[in-house]
Amino acid sequence: MSSSSTKLSLIQPSMLDQDESINIWFTFKNEHHYFPESRINGLNLGFNTLDSEAAVTQNRSLLLSELNLDSEWVAYADQVHSNRVQVVSEGGTYSSTDGLVTTLPGLTLAIQVADCAAVLIWDPINYVIGAFHAGWRGTVSDIVPRGIALMLQQGAKREQLRAFISPCISLQNFEVGPEVAEQFPDKYVDWDSYTKPHVNLKGFLHTQLVDEGLNEESIEIHPACTIENAQKFYSYRREGERSGRMMGIIQISR
After folding, report:
1. Which of 79, 106, 66 has its CA nearest to residue 90?
2. Cα angle 164, 165, 166; round to 5
3. Where are the beta strands (DSSP E) in 114-193?
4. Residue 147: in which H helix or E strand, if any?
5. Does a structural domain hold residue 152?
6. Residue 116 in domain
7. Residues 3-20: pLDDT tens digits?
8. Which domain holds residue 11?
9. Structural domain count of the chain
């Protein structure tokens, strides 16, 4: 995993070294970035925050400019913690959706997170990509398996799929009530080490990917926890309404 050389700090999966047809980025908080109208420090990319529309628009424009992406060719999910996924063929914001799939070169898919995982999946041979917002609700309702099923319908092959799980909340910090913990397999819940149960979100997502036929070597999981590093990541659990949003981005190169 490497950081981009642009002025903004970004993560790119190391597996992309062998997949020249696919572009993937995940944004850091970029605390050094400052926009006078912003109420939230850093590169906040979420309209569903305390920031003004002007500030978020400026931040998104800066990011897209640095990545040389056409703003008219970006598809955003208007996320609602659902398991709804859909195929898209043009830019814009798709309402009540938490997963996007496309086969169209040049169309960029974008998912926003601030403790949830952005799961980015691609088939570099058959040119199918997907971007999925995986919080606990989406994960237990199988947004990733549903997304993969849609990708297969669009021509992807299981044996060619690769996946990147972004920085997100860790087991050590993902405290939940028993009503949430009971929705996960016991293997991914620590019932004993803490006062309340803790959930291993990354671990469960990894298992879902393997169960869908992905090879272990085709899955890259970023080790960082969003809660533990306030300088690098936004965290809704840590910052509440003061939290911004990071973004996972995937594109088939033109």
Report:
1. 106
2. 110
3. 117-123, 128-134, 162-165, 189-190
4. helix 143-153
5. yes
6. yes
7. 443 589 999 999 987 778
8. 2-168+215-252
9. 1
